Amino acid sequence: MKIFPQRDARTFPTVQLKTDLLVAGGGLAGLCAALAAARDGLQVVLIQDRPVLGGNASSEVRLWANGATSHMGNNNRWSREGGIMGEILEENLWRNKEGNPVMFDLVLLDLAKSQPGLTLLLNTAVFDVVAHQQCIHQVKAFNPINETFYEVAASQFCDATGDGVLGYLAGAEYREGAEEMAELGEKMAPGDNFGHKLGHSIYFYTKQTDGPVQFVPPSFALPDITAIPRYKRLTSTLNGCDLWWLEWGGRLDTVHESEAIKWELWKIVWGVWDHIKNSGQFPEAANMTIEWVGAIPGKRESRRFVGDHLLCQQDIIEQRDHYDAVAYGGWSIDLHPADGVYSTHDGCRQFHSKGTYTIPYRSLYSRSLDNLFLTGRLISATHVAFGSARVMCTCGVLGEVVGRAAALCHQQGFTPRQLADRDNIGALQQHLQATGCYIPRQQLTDPAAGASVTASSEYLLSQLPPSGAWQSLSASMALLLPVKAGASLPELTFILRASQRRTVNVTLMGSARSGNFTPELHYDQCVLHVADEGEHRCAFNWQSDRDQYVFVAFEAHDDVEIALTDMALPGVMTVFNSLNARVAKQTRQVADGDYGVDEFDFWLPRRRPHQVMPALQLDPPLRCFSPDNLLNGRLRPEQYSNAWVPDAQDAAPQVTWQWPAPHAFRHLTLVQDHDFDNAMETVQMGHHQAVTPHCITHYRLWADDRLIAEVHNNHRSVCEHHFETPQTAQRLRLEIVATAGALPAIYSLNVR
Fold it and tell me: Domain of 287?
């Protein structure tokens, strides 16, 4: 036993740390920043004021992480985030395809704790900053759990706190609320009657029990459900993130009045549950109970800091490609009424661009301070642009960018602004791609460091045999196929049948911008006369002026069916003119006012395991999976398929990279297909498979005749191999032993 006698006032202990980079905030953006910087050799301290990582994606809030795929509800094909954010999504799918939020916490904590060079401080809040002459030198933080102060000195700092605690205390310039339309010409800039800031939400999860469950509402529950104009949307089946529109607080100070907002949201949540349980309108809810209610709100918007570029609506809608593009987004511009659940407006106003847009590096550092990076929802953006860039998978990608930028600045002696120079930024862009990050409409220069490439075989798209299954053409359906510049589409043969004779128009369409998947150009048309089951040929009189994907689109007929195949191919898919109710109200985006957005049709794939592919013959075969693709530096299907795929009959597929003379290397990054169109929402939504079928699960890497790596049970699209000492070889060979069930596809082996 210890006895401590009375004495003068005591103080808590102080721990002093010194590091290369301090990252404040452990949401997905902060975690990705910390991991990226540590992997690039920096000593990193990550300070998180909560007991778990993940921010709004954690078990404390339980919002699913989304990004450019937008629940597979827009035209952004093969756009799922890559790099570390992609690794997190794939790891969560592997460990947690059921979408358990507690297991997602575990995935994130495991990544942080296993990373050399990363010191994690949980339950630790920054409360003071020491800054001098436009530089931050130190932060002070406190952990109430272990009653310890921390003083952390660093040469570089990254604010990923969501509310911008670091930048705020250091005096950096920032903005709050919505800009006026006149400032930047943003036609979506909301008037005061609609919006000021996006509010907070609190979610709840329910479950069924074996018998009736009584519910007695607390005294602070909303007494009158009609105070919520949209209350008739409530059902007993809504759960978790489905109730995102239970939102409030956009007219308040979303930092200093967060506790008041939380109490109002609890009032709303318990009033909603009281209505479901006790109004008598939902008899099926008799055996239901609340399993979980958020203890803290999911916050959407507070401070936005100012960099050298202010991302705006036009950047998104026009898909502007900046010289310093380092990341991308693809979620809709998604603005919510400031009054939230009490508003008479719809819960959101969503407008999509025709494809992904890029985010410039100049939006990712403070123009006020020389050593402060910005990431997550703190980036330099208007309220309107923030409505898209704020979503968590996009934030994760931005986190990796600033982490790798910090490492590059450290190595080269640059400030963040100096790295933005046109002569310097290319190093960051190339490094991001070399480590597996995808940047739309960019390519990696010489990924194989001058090697030539050969393969054991090559898949020629000549025939997809019928499986016996049929698909109704009740909705317009299209096959996406890649075509090279100067080439024509082969003659296509499909199998169709109809209950009575029908004339079916098949239209060849393309996108005005290569890399987009919004069909707006009509190239040619073929007319088919369908009755009894039979083969029908489509020959289009057209030659492509560029590398692009085309749509072979069948018009809708309720009584016409098309034969399907069991084959699944990477970089080729079927889409439907349809809608995803989570992100759109109809199959065509139509503006109900002059908002400066485009009108276009949505063409959407189906989610696994409901994807379909038409049976097909091509004459001559379409050669779109050549090993030459491995040298073009394109890491996704975009302007073209960009992958090597072996022949389906190749029992031992392999690829060889060869140099004229022995070549030294220390890093190999294998980028392969993991169905980048498949959304991998982190929580609540379950997924069909833990690994997507094209993934190479077992492979070997040989340097000349030496086995330098063998990987079993792989579930990642980006596989990095680092060697302590330089390796020398004249030949590298990849031996593919097994996949998750479908043909493999390789985009690149990056040698450095």
Answer: 200-299
Q: Are residues 722 and 664 in the same domain?
A: yes
**What is the per-residue pLDDT for 191?**
79
Q: For tokens 């301070």, name the residue.
A: 369
Confidence label for 597 from pLDDT (cuts 50, 70 and 90) = very high
Asked if residue 456 lies in contact with residue 644, where contact means CB atoms within 8 angstroms, the answer is no
615: CATH = 2.60.120
Alpha helices, DSSP H, located in 442-525: none
> What are φ and ψ of residue 411, in 5° steps?
-70, -40
157-187 per-position pLDDT tens digit: 999 999 999 999 999 999 999 999 999 999 9
**712 three-state secondary structure:** coil
Q: Are residues 702 and 638 in the same domain?
A: yes
Nearest of 85, 677, 109 to residue 392 by alpha carbon: 85
Residue 1 lies in a domain: no
Phi, psi of 471 (to 5 degrees): -125, 125
- Whether residue 717 contacts residue 694, with contact meaning beta carbons closer than 8 Å, is answered with no
What is the full DSSP assignment across 254-272?
TTTTHHHHHHHHHHHHHHH
Contact by Cβ (8 Å): 475, 561: no
Q: 511 and 571 in one domain? A: yes
End-of-domain residue from the set 607, 622, 637: 622
- Dihedral angle sign, alpha carbons of residues 342, 346, 349, 354: positive
Cα–Cα nearest to 477, from 389, 553, 411, 533: 553
What is the DSSP secondary-structure string of 210-255? SS-------TTS-S-GGGSTTGGG--TT--GGGGTT-EE-TTS-TT
